[in-house]
Specification:
single chain; about 45% helix; 16 helices; alpha/beta; 2 domains
């Protein structure tokens, strides 16, 4: 045991009790026939919680963590502290990038040795904890070698390095029983067209993803392959802009039945969408997989990765998750970080506890709204005309026959209310 979280006791469901407790998240509460923990499938993000030093674009490190450093002993200390927090929160899952959990070596081989050693150590930690691996991924954006991308890099040696890294991370994810593997192209894009071959880079990205899928089947990995869209930041023009863009990419390379989406709230907003839009679109396309739950500061206009605190927003997101059938291998990963002034260990625990409560409140509101059925009934009523034999036959016809029918029947349609404000009022009854 370390003493980083000394004097902090494991959190319990205590709606009227201690300040550091769950007021709304009761993992054993049955909602729509299933335990809340099994619905929400919370995960702690290793990178923001234990690797991020508290910097921002205008200032450096503010956090003083005893495990910061580049040795294996410190990496193991970081793992010890991480699992202590997982146990305090009774967290069912966690997620990592390779660079979060191991020190960088002078060569790829040295980094790989460090990585394989820490994976074995994490496996030992997992044996004594309930916390499992939701997903693993590779950091192919942080090091300067990736300044021009990873899979899309103009240098084939960077492509090769990236492929070797993804192979190692997929092997490690499989070894730890991870339920998904995520590919996030943090710098898969370009800064200027003056030095960019768009067609070549797109082909490279497509082949890279095909290789990852092929390797999944080669090793018998049973989890899902997920792609996480992001519109900008850090690269000016990202190839994985949003769900619609990624779906077109998957169709082009024959991967629409192999790859699902890991959708982040903050990225959806940066793309000019709502979170629920991206979730609903992914579900309608059959590629919904998992979510990163956070929020942006709407005044700042960039990806601030704050813990969620807006129950109505969260409720609308989980409404779409439930409509999609809920999570299978996916879950709710808190891709969120403390504010750089929140220095104390208790801040880290409290941030996760509060976020879990916000999600629980939003989720229960979403479940109640879905079980009530009013919104879905009004949606069905709006499109009821398309259920008639005549309307269905029209979709099998052609423009000329439809035009003739309009003239023959003297059709003169009048608009009907979309009832948006009424629907918004209904939502507000639940949140």
């Amino acid at each position: 045991m370390t003493d980083f979280f000394k004097d902090i006791k494991p959190l319990t469901y205590d709606p009227e009790g201690a300040d550091l407790a769950f007021r709304h998240y009761n993992p054993d509460e049955i909602v729509m026939g299933k335990r809340m923990e099994d619905h929400l499938r919370f995960a702690v993000a290793y990178w923001h919680s234990f690797a991020w030093p508290g910097g921002d674009p205008f200032g450096g490190q503010t956090f003083d963590r005893p495990w910061f450093g580049d040795t294996m002993d410190l990496a193991k200390l970081k793992a010890d502290v991480a699992f202590e927090m997982f146990d305090l929160l009774n967290a069912p899952f966690f997620c990592w990038h390779d660079a979060d959990i191991r020190p960088e070596g002078d060569t790829f081989a040295e980094s790989l040795r460090n990585f394989e050693e820490i994976i074995d150590y994490l496996g030992t930690k997992m044996e004594g904890s309930k916390t499992k691996l939701l997903w693993g991924t590779a950091n192919l954006f942080g090091h300067r070698r990736f300044m021009s991308g990873a899979a899309t890099n103009p240098d084939p040696e960077i492509f090769a390095w990236s492929a070797a890294t993804v192979k190692a991370c997929m092997d490690a994810t499989d070894k730890l029983g991870g339920q998904n593997y995520v590919l996030w192209g943090g710098r898969e894009g370009y800064e200027t067209l003056l030095n960019t071959d768009l067609k070549r880079e797109r082909q490279q990205a497509g082949r890279f993803l095909q290789m990852a899928v092929e390797y999944k089947h080669k090793i018998g990995f049973e989890g899902a392959i997920l792609v996480e869209p992001k519109p900008q930041e850090p690269t000016k023009h990202q190839y994985d802009f949003d769900v619609a863009t990624v779906y077109g990419f998957l169709k082009e390379f024959g991967l629409e039945n192999e790859v699902q989406m890991n959708i982040e709230q903050g990225h959806a907003i940066l793309a000019g969408h709502s979170f629920e839009h991206e979730l609903a679109l992914a579900a309608s396309l059959g590629i919904f997989g998992s979510i990163d739950m956070n929020r942006n500061d709407y005044q700042s206009g960039w990806d601030t990765d704050q813990f969620p605190n807006n129950v109505p927003e969260v409720a609308l997101a989980y409404y779409e998750v439930l409509k999609a059938g809920g999570f299978t291998t996916g879950g709710t990963n808190f891709d969120a970080k403390l504010r750089r002034q929140s220095l104390d260990p208790v801040d880290l625990v409290a941030a996760h506890a509060g976020a879990m409560d916000v999600c629980a409140r939003g989720f229960k509101a979403a479940a109640a709204m879905l079980e009530d059925g009013t919104v879905e009934a009004m949606r069905a009523e709006r499109y009821a005309g398309w259920e008639t034999p005549e309307a269905k036959a029209m979709l099998e016809g052609d423009l000329a026959s439809i035009a003739a029918q309009v003239v023959q029947d003297g059709i003169n349609p009048q608009p009907r209310s979309g009832r948006q404000e009424i629907l918004e009022n209904i939502v507000n009854r639940f949140v």
